[in-house]
Write a structure and sequence with these properties.
By secondary structure, this protein is mainly α. Helix content is 59%, strand content 5%. It is built from six helices and four strands; from the N terminus they run ββααααβααβ. The model has no long low-confidence stretch (mean pLDDT 90).
């Protein structure tokens, strides 16, 4: 089987059920951004500083792929017809547990911090921002398709919690690598 089909050459793509839509369709933007997020998580999890987090990051990747399939479905009927995997509501609780576990060893956050200090921490911050963008797009999709909003609500909740997780993970990486976070100095950027 060839990887290229040429069916997208006209600027359209298929949703799960076969409906053709513009590649600018909000649904494609949503699951395309989840795909981008997933790719960055794949890069992040291969960093040496993340060896103890690698298995959980793999769980997150699997769940993101499932969420993307739900975004590609046009409605609940297609979800059931295609027997898509259920979105894992337990992931939100697990993310909260992981954040609480990491946060217990972190200094209380009293200031905004800037990305950097260690490559893996900076990468976790990039992942966080992509996650936030994905969340905004899915929220826009919910506004554009109000009849699908309740079906897609778990995606919004998961992405919201996931971006928080990557922020805490970025701080945890700095802690485990012995690097102090760079605190934002609001006067430093003034020329």
């Amino acid at each position: 089987m060839k990887i290229y089909t040429k069916t997208g050459d006209s600027g359209s793509s298929s949703l799960l059920g076969g409906s053709r839509v513009s590649k600018s369709d909000l649904r494609l933007e949503a699951y395309g951004t989840l795909d981008e997020l997933n790719a960055w998580i794949g890069l992040l999890k291969e960093q040496e500083a993340l060896s103890s987090h690698r298995a959980f990051l793999g769980v997150i990747q699997e769940e993101l792929f499932s969420m993307g399939s739900h975004l590609a479905a046009e409605d609940q009927i297609q979800v059931e017809t295609w027997k898509l995997p259920a979105m894992n509501s337990r992931l939100v609780g697990r993310l909260e547990e992981e954040m609480d576990r990491m946060d217990a060893d972190l200094e209380p956050l009293r200031n905004f911090i800037l990305s950097g200090g260690h490559p893996a921490s900076a990468m976790a911050q990039v992942v966080r921002t992509i996650c936030r963008r994905a969340e905004r797009i899915v929220v826009s999709l919910n506004v554009a398709l109000p009849d699908q909003a309740s079906r897609l609500e778990p995606v919004v909740v998961t992405l919201n919690r996931l971006s928080d997780y990557f922020f805490v993970l970025a701080r945890e990486i700095l802690r485990t690598q012995g690097v102090e976070a760079h605190v934002w100095n609001r006067r430093a950027g003034q020329l």
